[in-house]
Amino acid sequence: MLAVSSLHIDRAAPLSLLPLLKLLPWIAVAGLPLALPGYEPLATQVFVMILFALSLDLLVGYAGIVTLGHAGLFGVGGYTAGILSVHGLTDPIFTAICAMLLAAGTGLIFGVAMLRTKGLTLLMLTMASAFLLYEIANKATGLTGGEDGLQGVSFTPVLGLFAFDFQGKTAFFYSLAALFLAFIFVQALIQSPFGWSLRGIRENDARMVAIGCPIMRRRLIVYVIASALAGLAGALQAQSTQFVALYSLSFELSGNVLIMLILGGSGCLYGAFVGVPIFMFAQDQLAKQDPANWFLGQGIILIAMVMLAPGGVLGVCQRLFAAVAARRRA
Amino acid sequence: MTTLTTILFFGIAYGMILYLISVGLSVTMGLMGFVDLAHGVFAMLGGYATVTFMNRLGVPFLLAVAVGCLLVAALGFVLERMLYRHLYGRSELDQVLFSFGLILVSVAIVRIAWGPLAQPIRLPEYLKGQVRILDLTLPTYRLALVAFGATVIAGLWFIFDRTLFGARIRAAVDNRAMAQSIGINTSRLFAAAFGLGTGLAALGGGLGADILAIAPAYPLQYIVYFLIVVAVGGLGNIKGPFVAALAIGLADTACRYFLPAVGSIFLFAFVFVVLIWRPNGIVERR
């Protein structure tokens, strides 16, 4: 009896408050420039990487597609926005949409080829796809600037109202807004029947085929969506830093974003929001002295996490809560 | 020497090195089903050991390579017993993350110990210059590489096809549970095979130090080539990767020579085409 009534209370009370409660962290973050002036550019980088890691979570966490070439799509978005701006198309929202479309198209082409394979072959192809794009950008110096990066990128004010300023306030709110919209979209997507079918494919693809789910098409659709979001993140990066570097297509970035996501915890929507800030803070602290320290710390954390604490920070928290709850019940 | 023979020769030497480094990876993946991105680490360590023994202790080239190879094989064996074996049943993602972590740790250690710059290798006099065979003038180093590589490969194929150890490995690749039930100690077999694979990688890294430069970024920079060899060659066999490694060595060398503006773009595109045509590699396992 007790359990039933408490269930009712649980259900009734937060229902009206929940949407507001969920907005609270966003409002708090939007107030950040008041509390910590001067940190806007760093915060903008964090938002961009969260969006990038969120798009990866759709693949790794929900669809079970492990990719080592996600930076390829990020870079396509970045270079699209950058190259358009150099050639005179400087509206930020228009170029961001173009970046998303081109990244989605790239994802579609690679996805059709790659997603028919599995295991090692799939891993290798995702990696090769990013190496291929990297090599193209590296050689097409006339278009991309090659190893020097793309210079002379600048954008007109957002919506014609808010110019990109030196303190990075506009970039801060612009990328926060983009992240918010992307988050709402991803949340709706994973709670939709489509999102649940992705989890089914992740857990047991043979059984999903048996119940009539077109798994190839589903995997391709989510790959294209994740590509578009990664492209958006790349475009935001180009717009907020006014520069596009070859790093944005590199294997290193593909690996880093995977680590950021796993550090927070994949397949639970909030992993990116936890992992990215921790990663970037640690990077800032450790890489200051010597890049070797940073590699060493990162590697040890990664190995320790796989051996001792699978599921990342959120996974550990979840198990702690479960253990506490179990003790209370006992 | 004509352009064609140059490319052919450089390509084959490059392919030999790729094969020596990657063949262990093919066995590891086929045998244990382990996705090991960190395989290049062992090749890099073989290279560093060779260079260090030669430059600091004055050990001759071939002896330095051999000692490096044994040391790295021992390290591989220990790492397999301590870390790798706990992850055999785990998801692909966990294995990828673990081996990526291992890459980062090794990059950091190598950077701290040897600094960020590439280590130059001073080849012995008898490997410098060129030799004339019939009408061809061939670079000695690469000729020695091809000859030595061919010997090692012949030995490896003999072990794989004609000895009890090789038969056990083939049995375990085909059906691990059945191999176990007829009394093959698969756990010990895995450790031995892993040690052998890492030793061969170190051999490739040491011998090829003049082709694949020994620098801290080595495992990150070349990993895609090693994985391509294994994926194109097919898992768990040792002949498919040989064909794949030679093809990739030749294709990459030819691309760099004839189309330097395109670089390795064609290579990656070619790999895509091959793997779409044959997702399980050119030599399919029955």
CATH architecture of chain B: Orthogonal Bundle
What's the assembly state of these chains?
heterodimer
Beta-strand segment tally of chain B: 2
Mean pLDDT of chain A: 84
Identify the CATH class of chain A. Mainly Alpha
**Global structural class of chain B:** mainly alpha
Distance between the termini of chain A: 18 Å
Spatial gap, N to C terminus of chain B? 43 Å
pLDDT averaged over residues of chain B: 86
Give the SSE string of chain A.
Answer: HHHHHHHHHHHHHHH
Give me the side-by-side strand order of the main sheet of chain B.
Answer: 1-2
* Count of DSSP-assigned helices of chain A: 15
Q: How many E strands of chain A?
A: 0
Number of domains of chain A: 1
Can you describe this structure in just a few lines?
The complex is a heterodimer of chains A (330) and B (286). Chain A is mainly alpha-helical.
Describe the structure.
The complex is a heterodimer of chains A (330) and B (286). With 330 residues, chain A is mainly α. Chain A has a single domain, classed as ABC transporter involved in vitamin B12 uptake, BtuC. Chain A contains 15 helices and no strands. Chain A has helices at 2-30, 32-35, 40-63, 71-86, 92-114, 119-139, 141-144, 169-191, 193-203, 205-210, 215-241, 251-264, 271-287, 291-308, 312-329. In chain A, α4 (71-86) crosses α11 (215-241). The longest helix of chain A has 29 residues, at 2-30. Chain A is globular, with a radius of gyration of 21 Å. Chain B is 71% helix and 3% strand. Chain B has helices at residues 3-32, 39-57, 61-82, 92-114, 140-162, 164-174, 176-181, 186-207, 218-233, 240-258, 265-277, and strands at residues 130-133, 136-139. The mean pLDDT of chain B is 86. Chain B has one domain: ABC transporter involved in vitamin B12 uptake, BtuC, CATH 1.10.3470. In chain B, a hairpin with a 2-residue loop joins β1 and β2.
